[in-house]
Amino acid sequence: MKLGTALAIIGRQRHITGQPFNAALLCGFTPLHLATFLRAHLSERHPGRPIVFHTGLFDDLVGSLLGIEEQTLDAVFVAVEWSDLDPRLGLRRLGGWSPRSLGDVVAGLATRLDQIASSLTRAGQKTAIAVSLPTLPLVPISHAAGYQDDLFALDVRAHVAEFARRVARSRGIRVLGQQRLHRLSPLASRHDVGMDLQAAFPYSRTHAAHLAELLVSLACPPAAKKGLITDLDDTLWRGIVGEVGPAGVTWDIDNHSQIHGLYQQLLAALGAAGVLLAVASKNHPDLVSQALGRDDALVSADTFFPIEAGWGPKSEAVARILATWNVSADSVLFVDDSAMELDEVATAHPDLECVRFPTGDAAGFYALMETLRDRLGKPTVGEEDALRLDSIRSGESLRRELGQRGAPSERFLADMQSALTLDFTKNADRDRPLALINKTNQFNLNGRRFSESAWADYLTRAETRTLTVSYRDKYGQLGIIATMAFRVIAGPAEAGAAAGPSRDDRAPGHLCIDTWVMSCRAFARRIEHRCLEQLFERFDVARITFDYQETERNGPLQSFLAGLIGDLRGRDSYSLGRDEFLAKLPPLYSAVEECSHG
Amino acid sequence: MAEAPHTNKDDTENDNQDAGEVSNRLIRCFELVFPGLSRAEIRSANMASLARWDSVATLNLSSLIDEEFGVQIDDEELGLLISFDLILDYLTEGHNAS
């Protein structure tokens, strides 16, 4: 991005009036172009929100970090540079570069990093912080020639590396990937010495632009894709299995097909991290089964579900896979070596990201691996990631039942041995509820997303409560599948909130649901009904109001809510009385347990 | 009788066209740094009359001029370029704006 482009983006933002996105850049140098590029990238990432941008104190990174502890910010960017660690490592101070001073520089730097780490760790409890470690070349302070890394340089880098390891383990702190920055912004073109001396801004414009782009991706990562559908011939392996047979396809160095082995290795790793994987291949199912079942395969056949092998159009196979996963096309990647197949699938599923497997192009394949990691990457892997594929596989019984009848039979539901675990603990330290809120589209009360700081703020309010729901049945665990955030309010619901006068308005209070999401893996089990029943019962409220907003994709939530309170169109408010709910409540078979973390 | 100085009409027209083009590109730079100013206000802008024209705005202008014209203004000269007209003169007289 050029500076002119960034300023034009910021200029167009001037008249936007929405919920502000509050961000801060903390650095010891003049923020200048880095702040401009950050604002521009944030504006592109959050187009409907005015970006309110704060900057810290000049030449006082630790002081700036202390200053944000009391603020509510949606994102914080911290750009550490050598001069923040010791002024002698910058060009603007003349503290002396004698060999005797080097030990003092290293000792002071260690203390300084410790101070910064402590301040970051405290600030990170409340706000997502994206940190860049020193990106500029070390100034020629040491007696060694530039082509040698002497003990001074190695010591300095070791302290910075240890600092990075320490802060990366802290909640809310993400450290910028050096490798990606090196590629985008070569070391030799990062330092603008003239601007450093003239204006205390040390970065070249191109370096500032790349750094800002990566920092914004780090603080506000795009939603990760949930699944990958892969072709087989000349993609998962080299060769056409229908021609050379299951034993004839290869994925190793000896057969000049190592990139296919690397692809298998990557898919196995993605599957283990909770990415859904499926196969869409024009092949005979028996041949596919034999080839995938080979002992030397690097990814096991049961990593893929479903496996669509047949002779119909791939777009139809993809449609069946999406239906089985119950995810939308824009959450999925399709990888195939054939441009024709990619076009056919892309035409039928325009929201699906179609990626060509570059058979025979090693460098292109390396780039593909990085693309897949970027699209499917997640900062941490949790328990739910390990459960996801199993739960979809086990949910096949329910889908078959739904396919036959349109809705599961009472007997089927009664035989599922389902159990909900309800957790009413308010805990901002748990990642899964917020992650679920921020990635769920279909059963989502209003589509509202929360930054980590906004979620922490919501939870600190005395009147707010949360409910996190885990589910299991005889087919296996689904893990945490629903999150609700609500307030219990004394007194009846506000006038006008109710559909009409009701005797149950005489009850002592009502409950307002601000946020409610449920994973699509948990549909058709009446979990949503059980959740509402439990709220009415446990909080003894006469009425529940919903902060409902129609979104492009919350159709399942709309259907559920309309089934309880009637047509959603043209209403100012959405509420449900206890009697009204109980009259419409279908039989519920799930057991209910409560869990508390104290 | 002394002859009238020789002028090449085509060269003069080309110079005027070039100056107009440079002026328009410089106005676009000013519009980015000072959004909301009219073209007339930009043409008469100077540091004394435009409160928003501070040191940060000067650095932004300098960087945009580098991006737009490929001209790097050194520190000393930058301190002297305190109006739109002076910057335009700087770009059109002797600093080959590309």
How would you characterize the overall build of this protein?
The complex is a heterodimer of chains A (598) and B (98). By secondary structure, chain A is an alpha/beta fold. Helices cover 41% and strands 17% of the residues of chain A. Chain A folds into three domains: 3-219, 3-Layer(aba) Sandwich (Rossmann fold); 227-376, 3-Layer(aba) Sandwich (Rossmann fold); 403-595, 3-Layer(aba) Sandwich (Aminopeptidase), CATH 3.40.630.30. In chain A, strands 11, 12, 13, 14, 15, 16, 17 and 18 form an eight-stranded mixed sheet that branches. A five-stranded parallel sheet of chain A has the order 2-1-3-4-5, with helices on both faces. In chain A, helix 14 (339-348) links the parallel strand 9 (332-336) and strand 10 (353-356). In chain A, helix 3 packs parallel to helix 5 (101-124). By secondary structure, chain B is mostly helical. Chain B has one domain (19-92): Orthogonal Bundle (Non-ribosomal Peptide Synthetase Peptidyl Carrier Protein, Chain A), CATH 1.10.1200. Chain B has five helices and no strands. The interface between A and B is medium-sized, with 16 and 16 residues.
Which SSEs are present, and which pair or pack?
The complex is a heterodimer of chains A (598) and B (98).
Chain A: H1 3-12, E1 21-27, H2 32-45, E2 51-55, H3 61-67, E3 75-79, H4 82-85, H5 101-124, E4 129-132, H6 151-168, E5 173-175, H7 178-184, H8 193-199, H9 205-219, E6 227-230, H10 241-244, H11 258-272, E7 276-282, H12 285-292, E8 307-310, H13 314-325, E9 332-336, H14 339-348, E10 353-356, H15 362-376, H16 383-394, H17 396-405, H18 410-414, E11 419-423, H19 431-439, E12 443-444, H20 452-460, E13 464-473, E14 476-490, E15 509-518, H21 527-539, E16 543-546, H22 555-565, E17 574-577, H23 578-584, E18 591-595
Helix pairs in contact in A: 1-2, 2-9, 3-5, 5-6, 11-15, 13-14
Chain B: H1 9-33, H2 39-43, H3 55-69, H4 75-80, H5 84-92
Mean pLDDT over the residues of chain A: 90
| Overall pLDDT level of chain B | 85
What would you call the shape of chain A? globular
CATH class placement of chain B: Mainly Alpha
Distance between termini of chain B?
42 Å
In terms of DSSP E residues, the strand content of chain B is: under 5%
Task: Please report which band the strand proportion of chain A falls in: under 5%, 5-15%, 15-25%, 25-35%, 35-45% or over 45%.
Answer: 15-25%
**Superfamily at the CATH H level of chain B?**
ACP-like
